[in-house]
Amino acid sequence: MTFPSCPQCQSEYTYSDGVMLLCPDCAHEWHADADEDEAAAVVKDAYGTLLQDGDTVTLIKDLKLKGSSTVLKVGTKAKGIRLQPDAADGHDIDCRIEGMGAMKLKSEFVKKA
């Protein structure tokens, strides 16, 4: 039986574990019945937790706002996020932070609250 290549690293050495397919090279997991577009649209936080629209996330690092002297501190919460997995600039989360307004964040700097 042949399995599809890994959608993340294109490794051909994938294997099945029940309903999940696994890649031994990059440790990526995906559903066997999911198409590649659906697998590519997954957004995870800095710790690998799957994020969904409407989640609340917390910053894990101080972030300086571009074009401003303002800094978003560690622990700042963004409620009701909207995911943008196809964003060309890597900012895959649209959110509103109380007291700051609307902004975009990279999922690598947040954790699910």
TrEMBL record:
- Naturally occurring in which organism (per UniProt): Vitreoscilla massiliensis
- Residues of the Protein YjdM C-terminal domain: 43-113
Under the heading InterPro entries, the entry gives:
YjdM, YjdM_C, YjdM_N
Q: Which family does it belong to?
A: Belongs to the YjdM family.
Spell out the protein name for this chain: Alkylphosphonate utilization protein
Q: Which branch of life, at top level?
A: Bacteria
Please list the residue ranges annotated as the Protein YjdM N-terminal domain: 2-30
Pfam families, from UniProt?
Answer: YjdM (PF03831), Zn_Ribbon_YjdM (PF08274)
Q: What is the lineage of its organism?
A: Bacteria, Pseudomonadati, Pseudomonadota, Betaproteobacteria, Neisseriales
